[in-house]
Amino acid sequence: MAIFPFILLKSARLKNDPEIINHEKIHLRQQLELLVFPFYILYFLHYLINLIRYKKHDLAYRNIVFEKEAYRNENNLHYLKSGNWYGWIKELRTIKKTDTQ
C-alpha cells in the first residue's frame, strides 16, 4: 500500500519484489500528480462507483483507474522513468470506450 510518501508492505520479503515495489511507486506518482489528498478522494469515489456498478469488491477495486494503470505497468520497471505522467487518464478513456461498445 502506498500512502505518500511511504510504501507499506505486509512482509519484509516483499521489499525484494520489483513488480510490487514498482506498482506502489506508480501509486506514489499518481498521488503526486493530484497533490496527494485529491488522489484519495478520487480513488475512494471511483471505488464506490465501481462497487455500485460491479457489486463485487474485487471487480470494483481492480477497475479503479489508478489500479488499472498500476497493474498494467507493474512489470515495466522503466515505466516511471519513461515520463508517462497522468497515465491513469488513459484508463478513463478505456472505460468510456467499453461502455459505448
UniProtKB/TrEMBL annotation:
Sequence intervals crossing the membrane: 34-52
- Keyword Transmembrane in record: yes
Q: Which UniProt keywords apply?
A: Membrane, Transmembrane, Transmembrane helix
Q: What is this protein called?
A: DUF4157 domain-containing protein
Q: From which organism does this entry originate?
A: Pedobacter rhizosphaerae
